Amino acid sequence: MSGKKAVKVLFEFSIPLIAGVIGALIWANVAPHSYHRLVHGSPFGAESHLNLHFLVNDVFMALFFGIAAKEITESVLPGGALNPPRKAINPLLGTLGGVVGPVGVYFAYVALSGDQTIANGWGIPTATDIAIAWLVARLAFGASHPAVSFLLLLAVADDGLGLGIIAVFYPDPAHPVQPIFLLVMAAGMILAWVLRKRDVRNYWAYLMGPGVLSWTGLFLAHLHPALALVVVVPFMPHGGVDEGLFAEDGDAKHYGDTLNQFEHAFKVPVDLGLFVFGLANAGVTLGSVGNATVAVLAALVIGKTVGIFTFSYVGHRLGFSLPAGMNGRSLALVGFTASLGLTVALFVAGVAFTEPSLQGAAKMGALLSAFAAPVVLILAKVLRVRETTPEPARREALVREPVPAE
After folding, report:
1. DSSP string of 261-303?
2. Is the omega angle on the peptide bond into residue 78 within 30 degrees of 0, that is, cis?
3. What tens-digit pLDDT sequence spans the chain (406 residues)?
4. DSSP at 87
5. What crossing angle do the helices spanning 328-337 and 146-169 adopt, rounded to 10°?
6. Sign (positive or negative) of CA dihedral 110, 113, 118, 124
7. Which letter does DSSP use for residue 355 in this model?
8. At what angle do helices 15-30 and 258-281 cross, to 10 degrees?
9. End-to-end alpha carbon distance in the chain
């Protein structure tokens, strides 16, 4: 295998991210103090937020979500899995199910266990780990399968709702939400629209102008600034062709549009950076198990799967069709893939509980959701959902209406 092919396989199978998660688990349990210093320590003092965790989660991940936004943008273009845009209604219905289902299962477990001390953790399983779920979905379905775009849109919207839940139900008394600063983000969107109208094709203009404005607005509003580029990237000029995340460098030269140039400039740094993302977020001390563990895990695995499948399938029956190429089997597997809460759920657990034992038990439930990943890959083989259609034929098939398996 050539060096170029080896690097491609390394990224396609998410080795940097997996290595970071494993490294974090080992380090946090062997030398927890030094791990904490690495992730949360700052050269500017203990009160400073400028640490590795901030740089990774609030700055670097903006690029990851930006690339995710690029995939969603192209999926709604002609020939995309979510075109016409009316097809986006179904994954948005799935998003609603992906919140209602986990909350329902969580409170059902609280009622059955009688443990009211864990009731405040209901928001933990509402969000999906976009980074890991997206990467697992690409392995399970194939990078060009419409289920990947479906899951991506669902997960981004899911996390948007999750951040709203944090802002409303888990406010930080020291840093309350300041909605007025969202006007700064809106100014960034307007500037991106102006650049688009003036046919500006350099992606740096969009990142350093509208992108910085959007990030600043979210940061000052005390909302998650990692989503800054989600509202900017769709304004980048595009050629109407999705060349794929793993296209060869030679193929990339055939596409001069800003959207694909942005992706190819940052896909390698982002894939490599996912190692640091995993390292900074997955350091959970093993051994903390309790009712919160079971509640979070059950809400993720059962609630997400059932909620997403039910809402999306009902939406399909009501006329809001699934993307062409998806059926009941692939929809169920998308729901199960979305149960990978992991790092996002770890973050919410940190604000939902202040008592160390409850927080540790809840984080363990979030961490255990990672075991859904190998199960997804096995089920993908059993259910035969992986994309096998050649790309041209797949694009032609996307214009047809789907017929879900009953």
Report:
1. HHHHHHHHHHHHHHHHHHHHH----TT--SHHHHHHHHIIIII
2. no
3. 555 665 566 666 678 888 898 999 899 999 999 999 999 898 887 677 789 989 998 899 899 889 888 888 888 777 776 777 777 899 999 999 999 999 999 999 999 999 999 999 999 999 888 878 988 998 899 888 999 989 988 988 887 787 778 777 887 777 788 999 999 999 999 999 999 999 999 999 999 999 999 999 999 998 888 889 999 999 999 875 544 433 444 444 445 789 999 998 998 899 889 899 889 888 888 777 899 999 999 999 999 999 999 999 999 999 999 988 899 999 999 999 999 987 778 878 877 888 888 988 998 899 899 899 999 999 999 999 986 544 444 444 444 444 444 4
4. G
5. 40
6. negative
7. S
8. 20
9. 43
Tokens of 15: 């080795």
Q: How many residues does the chain have?
A: 406
Q: Assign 174 to helix, strand or coil.
A: coil
Is 127:348 a contact under the CB 8 Å cutoff? Answer: yes
For residue 405, give the amino acid letter. A
Candidates 334, 310, 307, 338; CA nearest to 323 is 334
376: number of Cβ within 10 Å: 22
Answer yes or no: are the C-beta atoms of 187 and 217 closer than 8 Å. Answer: yes
**Cα–Cα distance for residue pair 83/15, rounded to 1 Å:** 32
**What is d(CA 385, CA 376) in angstroms, rounded to the nearest whole number?**
11
For residue 136, CA distances in Å to 13, 46, 103, 346 come to 8, 36, 24, 19
> Residue 94, Cβ neighbours under 10 Å: how many?
32
Which tokens is 67 given? 């690339």
Which two three-digit tokens encode residue 120?
């405040």
Cβ(17)–Cβ(278) under 8 Å? yes
Domains and their CATH numbers in the chain: 3-387 (1.20.1530.10)
Asked whether the beta carbons of 157 and 176 are under 8 A apart, the reply is no
Instruction: Tabulate helix, strand, coil % of the chain (nearest 5).
Output: 70, 0, 30
